[in-house]
Amino acid sequence: MLRQKPGQRLAYLPTANAQTLAEHLIAFANGDGGLIVLGVDERGRPLTAVWEEEAEAALQEAATLCRPPVPTRWQPVETADGNLIGINVARSTELHSLHDGRVLVRSSSLNRPLSGSEIRTLAASKNSAEFETQVVAGAKPSDLDQDVIRDYLDRRERRGSAKVDSTEEMLFAVGATDRDGNPTTTGILLFGKNPQMFFPQSGVVFVKFPGTEPRGEDGGIGYGRRAELTGPVARIIERAWNIVFEEMRVGATVNKLEREELTEYPRFAVREALVNAVCHRDYRIQGRRIELRMYADRLEIISPGGLPGYMTLDNLVEEHFSRNPRLVNGLFQWGYIEELGLGIDQMIEEMVQYGHPPPQFRATDYSFTVTLNNKKERPFTPKWTRNMNERQARALTFIRENGSITNRDYQNLCPDVSPETLRLDLVDLVESGLLLKIGSKRGTHYILK
Length: 449
Prior knowledge:
Layout (H helix, E strand, L loop, with lengths): L9 E4 L4 H13 L3 E5 L13 H13 L1 E2 L4 E3 L2 E3 L2 E3 L1 E4 L7 E2 L5 E4 L2 E4 L2 H10 L2 H6 L12 H13 L8 H7 L11 H7 L3 H4 L5 E5 L16 E5 L3 H15 L2 E6 L2 E6 L3 H14 L9 E5 L3 E7 L20 H10 L8 H11 L6 E4 L3 E7 L16 H13 L4 H7 L5 H13 L3 E4 L6 E4 L1
Parallel strand pairs: 1-2, 11-15
Antiparallel strand pairs: 2-7, 3-8, 4-7, 5-6, 9-10, 11-12, 13-14, 15-16, 16-18, 17-18, 19-20
Helix pairs in contact: 1-2, 9-10, 10-12
């Protein structure tokens, strides 16, 4: 764990300073929770040991600086040199502030104070998390699918989580049941045999239109394909991905003499948009399901419910706040979310890398829409060209299309750049192991290594 950088749900503190600790407690409790590790620097390197008595005294003092106090629990962090002291902070259903009135939230690896309007929207959204732990009326333990639960446990263990001693305790710990084993909203959505019997709005509707407007081929009312997807959320994500992949155009290019499949949209971008829609929709809104609309020029993912908490279109990339934290944590443990808080920026990066415009985001009070456009603004460039300058990327594109490149070819591609600079570009590509230099003097040309 110490190899991870501080982020949305992880912080390193070199000392047990009560004021600093209180700020982190407030920021994590108001956000999605997290872990504070004492006695390490910002890179996760152990420093002077923090003693248990010292940590306990600092935590008690920090609690007096929080309004109201933040619930915590100790969590030992094992290292090769012994255990470090960790403090686990759960997301709170209350709004917490410091003794001086500041309300903080976790923003990437920083604790950011909220403005007055952000505080009001965060306070209004706090009660939505309680919906996740409400016992579902009429639901029984037998309504949970044991095969789905086993799949969850298997994947969770493969990701490094400890093997659970009791399935019942695990279900209670993740918020899927109450103490008596009765399924909650989270439990039905994650593990239910038929979640739509209790939450009809939890399904997904896929519609493909032949053109760029919501019409049929003759211009009237109609569509090319329509499908209704049901089941627990993990199965819905898989089925939605499969149907979108079936309908995507697929091409190919040759990358280092190997055939590389090119989908109409980047796989990660589509999958991240689907996962986000399922994770962050407002399941309290009845009568509306998530909609996937595929047009000839774009893919739209429409999720019921506006942006949660203090989130806005302006801070969407830098910050993270979950409307359904237990559902998000369940899908994270399952492996459907790679790393919390990093999906949007990677989605943008993947789209741009493919040569597409960045995703478009649109938020209203009752819906959030992600639009992926398939119109390429520039030729596709493989991931292994990311650290190159634009000239070098153009040179590689030329080689893929023509088989090789000479110095004269390169000068024709970049007529405004000096020959010496272009020569150094090619030398760098050779030293990087991407190109192979063939011949000498005027007969020199370069091919993909």
